[in-house]
Write a structure and sequence with these properties.
The complex is a heterodimer of chains A (251) and B (402). Chain A is an alpha/beta fold and 251 residues long. Chain A has a domain at 2-88 and 164-244: Rossmann fold (3-Layer(aba) Sandwich), CATH 3.40.50.300. Helix content of chain A is 35%, strand content 29%. Chain A has helices spanning 40-48, 72-78, 95-109, 117-130, 148-162, 178-191, 231-239, 242-245; strands at residues 2-11, 14-24, 29-33, 53-62, 65-66, 80-83, 90-94, 141-142, 166-170, 197-202, 215-220, 223-228. The longest helix of chain A is centred in the middle third of the chain and has 15 residues, at 95-109. The two termini of chain A are 33 Å apart. The mean pLDDT of chain A is 94. Chain B has one domain (3-341). Chain B has helices spanning 3-19, 26-30, 105-113, 343-350, 356-373, 378-393; strands at residues 72-77, 80-84, 90-93, 117-121, 131-145, 148-153, 158-181, 186-193, 200-209, 214-222, 226-235, 241-250, 255-264, 270-279, 284-293, 301-310, 316-325, 331-340. In chain B, β1 (72-77) and β2 (80-84) form a beta hairpin. Chain B is globular, with a radius of gyration of 21 Å. The chains are: A alpha/beta (251), B alpha/beta (402). The interface between A and B is medium-sized, with 30 and 23 residues. The complex binds adenosine-5'-diphosphate (ADP) and magnesium ion. Residues 40-41, 85, 170-171 of chain A line the site of magnesium ion. Chain A: Residues 2-246 form the ABC transporter domain. Chain A: GO terms for molecular function: ATP binding; ATP hydrolysis activity. Chain A: It comes from Alcanivorax nanhaiticus.
Chain lengths: 251, 402
């Protein structure tokens, strides 16, 4: 469903991705690991269409369509979801109002039945419960004044409601204590299905104890320099990245 | 002849027609109309008045009546009282007390010719329901009207007044509104202004707190061909409290010039101004918030905030706090900002499938939402919400860049 071929991308005219290849098929869970600054968030941002993240070479196809041709909202409508590394605070726009607008647009585009406000509220409350977020968060401004962990859980809550075909999770584990990590992992695992692809971007192996990936890739200096099965994550945990990158590990 | 001289000649001639040859027009004869370089008018061109609005009085009818936001409604049409239904405890007179704080030549002209509507709330009386004062005007040709509303709260009176101004066609509303409060009075005032874009408005709102009183004023307005909004607040008895909140939205080629002046002349009063502005397309807005703390007004606590959002590059907002403080022992916090929609917030919404235009609308509404949510009267909030939503959705050309 996701086919990335020799992808080159720049952020504010600075080349970051330098020939990246990755294929994700339905039902697969991929983990992308790599040291800070290697381009993991850049990849996630390029795929979801953020301004100033420009594809300069190669291609990224989602279900055969070039992502470069789609606006960010069209990518979401097509079934792509990015859980942000740094979820954005939007005071004055309530979480519920936000979910309503998002779901109306995405479900409408996908030809799914429309949820009336009662159904929406019920579904949203259920999703909150699954990520241990109090339903009162639905009334608050989007991420406004949420703690780091609450923001991450809010991302997962949105993801559960949006039912994406392909979910990209950017460092969803960072800043979470072990309980919150388990809650998030449970949410992600509940979405695992033969039709859905999941890409976990993470810095640490810790998350992968709870969400066991089918494939692990190491991203370094804008390229995938090694791929393997879940055992690669364990190896990275023991040895760090230095043996692959030839650099001293700083993290 | 310059436009300023023209306007003076026109208003004098009009005043003689309306008030009679025997009327005392000394004040009008003595005052000058603004020139292009007049500091207080530098952001408002009066060129539109060259169309001759001041030569004729508006006599048209609205295409449809305004909705009643209360059981109690006073209607002023083209400057003349046309109907009124008032609760017990509120009396209506047509003789105006002297109104302090009127300074612009337009207000002076209004003083010379207006047929005032004076609403007086009896002492120690609490009026539950708001009084909806509809100030309406219409004209197919350039013409004007001179509504004048005075709301007077006697000792211990409590009331809510919704001042709702509407105009259509080529009408210029040249208005004076005065809110006068005695000791222990509490007044909630709304000003709703969503006139048609082709109309003009020049008005002065005087808030004269003669007594230890509380005034809460909410001012919601869109721009039109010319909107000049002078607010002159006289906080003149120790212990008085004034809260003003407002939202102004200018889209397309519309214009709003807010000139707000709060004068603290006695010790220990509080005033708070919190205005939010939005400008899109080639809209232009001005906010000049003046706080004048006189010698002797120690213990004053005056605050001013004006945050603005530019929806695109062609729009313009000029905002300036102007502080004149002749006293050390005061608190005076002020802040004005002009910003743009945050591209990261917009991307976040779009990344959830929300189309760009809708994302902008949500963010713009979010920007003023806090203020909108704080409106204490449900009927007003019910009017304001769709009004603002419509303002924020309307006329935004497809794909306009942030
Ligand atoms: N908005 C930006 N402007 C300039 N440089 C950026 C921007 N975002 C990321 N970068 C740079 O791109 C490189 C990769 O960053 P990123 O993708 O965030 O790495 P990771 O997520 O793997 O830690 C870094 O050198 C970073 O400084
Ligand atoms: Mg990152």
């Amino acid at each position: 469903m996701l086919e990335i071929r020799d992808l080159h991308a720049s952020v504010a005219d600075k080349p970051i991705l330098k020939g990246l290849n990755l294929t994700v098929n339905p039902g697969e869970v991929h983990a992308i690991m790599g040291p800070n600054g290697s381009g993991k968030s850049t990849l996630a941002n390029v795929l979801s269409g953020r301004d100033n993240y420009e594809i300069t070479g190669g291609e990224a196809l989602f279900e055969g369509k070039s992502l470069a041709d789609l606006e960010p909202e069209e990518r979401a409508q097509a079934g792509l979801f990015l859980a942000f590394q740094y979820p954005v605070e939007i005071p004055g726009v309530s979480n519920m109002e936000f979910l309503k607008a998002a779901l109306e647009s995405v479900r409408g585009a996908q030809g799914k039945e429309e949820w009336d406000s009662v159904t929406l509220l019920r579904k949203a409350r259920e999703a909150c419960k699954q990520v241990s977020l109090d339903a009162s968060f639905l009334k608050r401004g989007v991420n406004e004044g949420f703690s780091g962990g609450e923001k991450k859980r809010n991302e997962i809550m949105q993801m559960m409601l949006m039912e994406p075909k392909l979910a990209l999770l950017d460092e969803t584990d960072s800043g979470l204590d072990i309980d919150a990590l388990q809650v998030v992992a449970k949410g992600v695992n509940s979405l695992r299905s033969p039709e859905r692809g999941i890409v976990l971007v993470t810095h640490y192996q810790r998350l992968l104890d709870y969400i066991v990936p089918d494939f692990v890739h190491v991203l370094y200096n804008g390229q995938i320099i090694k791929s393997g099965g879940k055992e690669l994550a364990l190896e990275l945990e023991q040895k760090g990245y230095g043996w692959l990158t030839g650099e001293e590990e700083s993290a | 002849m310059s436009l300023a001289l023209d306007l003076k000649t026109q208003t004098l001639a009009s005043a003689r027609r309306l008030a009679g040859d025997s009327a005392d027009l000394g004040a009008l004869e003595a005052i000058s109309f603004p020139e292009r370089k007049t500091e207080r008018w530098k952001y408002t061109s009066l060129q539109a008045l060259a169309d001759g609005h001041l030569n004729a009085v508006a006599s048209g009818e609205l295409s449809q009546p305004l909705p009643a936001l209360s059981e109690f409604v006073v209607t002023i049409t083209n400057g003349i009282l046309s109907s009124s239904t008032l609760p017990d405890g509120v009396s209506l007179k047509q003789e105006s007390p002297t109104v302090n704080g009127l300074e612009t030549p337009f207000a002076v002209y209004n003083s010379a010719v207006a047929q005032p509507v004076v609403l007086e709330v009896a002492a120690n009386t609490r009026i539950e329901q708001p009084i909806h004062v509809q100030i309406q005007s219409a004209s197919d040709v350039p013409a004007h009207c001179n509504p004048r509303v005075v709301v007077q709260l006697n000792n211990g009176a409590e009331a809510t007044v919704i001042e709702h101004i509407h105009a259509e066609g080529q009408s210029l509303t040249n208005a004076v509104t005065a809110l006068i409060t005695a000791d222990n009075a509490t007044l909630t005032h709304y000003r709703l202004q969503g006139e048609h874009a082709s109309t003009l408005y020049i008005g002065t709102l005087v808030i004269d707190q003669q007594g230890v009183s509380t005034v809460n004023s909410y001012q919601l307005m869109t721009g039109n061909r010319l909107r000049r909004n002078d607010v002159h607040a006289l906080v003149s008895k120790s212990g008085a409290e004034l809260n003003m909140k407002g939202i102004f939205v200018v889209r397309d080629k519309s214009h709003v010039d807010n000139q707000i002046c709060v004068e603290h002349s006695v010790p220990n009063c509080e005033s708070d101004q919190n205005f939010k502005g939005l400008a899109g397309e080639s809209g232009k807005a001005v906010f000049n918030g003046r706080i004048h703390i006189h010698p002797g007004a120690s213990g004053t606590n005056a605050e001013l905030s004006n945050k603005n959002l530019l929806l695109n590059a062609g729009a313009e907002i000029n905002t300036k706090p102007e502080l004149e403080i002749y006293n050390d022992d005061v608190k005076c916090a002020h802040g004005t900002t002009v910003g743009q929609l945050d591209p990261i917030q917009q991307f976040y919404l779009q990344s959830r499938g929300i189309p760009a235009a809708e994302a902008k609308r949500m963010l713009s509404l979010g920007f003023v939402n806090e203020l909108l949510m704080s409106l204490p009267h449900e009927k007003v909030a019910e009017w304001a919400q769709p009004w603002l939503e419509a303002e924020l959705t309307h006329a935004s050309p497809a794909g306009d860049a942030a």
